[in-house]
Amino acid sequence: MPDTATPPATSGRRATVRRRTWLELKAAALEELREVGPSGLALRSVARRSGMSPAGLYRYVDSREGLLTALIADGYHDLADHLEVALGAAPEDLPPRERPAPSVPEIADRHAGTPQRLVAAGLAYRWWSVTHPKEFGLLFGDPIPGYEAPVAGPTVAAMSRVGTALARPLLEAADDGVLRVDPQLRATEVLGPPGAMDPLLPPHVAPALGPLLLLAWGRLHGQVSLEVFGHHRWLYPEGCEALLRIDLARTLRDLGLVAPDSGDAAP
Amino acid sequence: MPDTATPPATSGRRATVRRRTWLELKAAALEELREVGPSGLALRSVARRSGMSPAGLYRYVDSREGLLTALIADGYHDLADHLEVALGAAPEDLPPRERPAPSVPEIADRHAGTPQRLVAAGLAYRWWSVTHPKEFGLLFGDPIPGYEAPVAGPTVAAMSRVGTALARPLLEAADDGVLRVDPQLRATEVLGPPGAMDPLLPPHVAPALGPLLLLAWGRLHGQVSLEVFGHHRWLYPEGCEALLRIDLARTLRDLGLVAPDSGDAAP
DNA sequence: ATAGTGCGCGAACAGCGTTCGCATTGCAAG
DNA sequence: CTTGCAATGCGAACGCTGTTCGCGCACTAT
Question: How far apart are CA A169 and CA A161, in angstroms?
Fold first, then answer.
């Protein structure tokens, strides 16, 4: 029974070469994923791409699902990195990564005030999704039937990085007292007790801002999801980013924040 | 080369039995889909379920993808039926269907004013999605790589039924003059020229209300998508419907419509 | 030098989508 | 009623997939 993540010896030449081929394997799988999508990813194909036999692959992966899980965690980390860069983080602040450094287009002033930072996060979320559609489908498309990520596992840790990055502008706004949180959204009894993810969020996020975060994330995710999966492009092939900017501006007003100047509708 | 939809003779005993087994095949495929999901649906398995040989199935379907396409069209019709019932249509008003008649829970007064009807449509959208998660994944999850539905095909016709049902409350509000449409959303130059779907919408929808519809649909779809795919339930397993109600109410206010009384947060 | 273990491979099995050729059956024209 | 045709279903087969097993090699630690 091979162990995907933790070879018994963490140092020594054997371990380093193992880590290296594991990275190469994931890189090959990622390449394959970007061509054929999550449902079309074939173990034998990434084995061919890596010059390895299909059976040998099982020294590094315990199943096709395990490989997909590893790619999911990597995907969340990549998305989180892009978000953090869009929010003004320097590349040195990011955890070490295996992919090319994230680059976000000049879609917003990364060092502006809170409302603009929320817009920047939203646009970065869209940007990553549009430029990584197959990975977006892997993260947010049909879940693998019957699979539930272990709460303490690396997948959840990577997910929560995305969550906290998206939450950061809201947290700042709340600390600055600029955010008007609807009392309806504060009332815990409306949404019921928090679930399993709760302990993973920064302590003061969950009770007060959790529902608000989910609401904002849902609005953002809906526009992006419909665009990436090809439902929005039918009507306005060129206007998806503009539509998202409008939606973000209205959400800002809805949250009591000052909307950025309306001139932001033109890229 | 079999023809999925149009047997040359539309009457005669041969044709009726053919139609019947085609319906049985789709029913078996739907059953299978609900158990294993879109990516796990196997032609051989639905053949076994129907007591047919795998090869014989190809007299009715030209590929696995063709069967999925048929299920997609059926799914859109089913969703559209549920939406129309939630909007007050009597079962006789619906086009003839092959499935059990749609039933929506008493989540809203179906005959109330426009704001409540918009809420009813949104809640029905969520209700269908939550109770048909695998079909939701089929309709709105990762698209089949490389597949593009023909614009004049039955899939697009079924899709546009969903679109017009969702648009109806907005259309009514616009006709009543209750809807305040942001001039930014009217400006075509913001979103660019309309795309392929445009001629399928009712003529006065697309230019004026198209962007507004997309915005509202995106917000709705985001909340539902995150819930169905298991991303919202982690934080508030019980509160997804309440969160959606809050989101819908805020969107109503955002559109200039009167929000329903805040007492609607308790199911 | 030797024992042991991590590593990769070839072969194999079951299941999948899909195609081909053959039998059977229902229908329509003579 | 008979004859011919097209629609229909099936068994076998091909190439692909995920996964397992057992072997041999190479590196590591003693």
Answer: 14
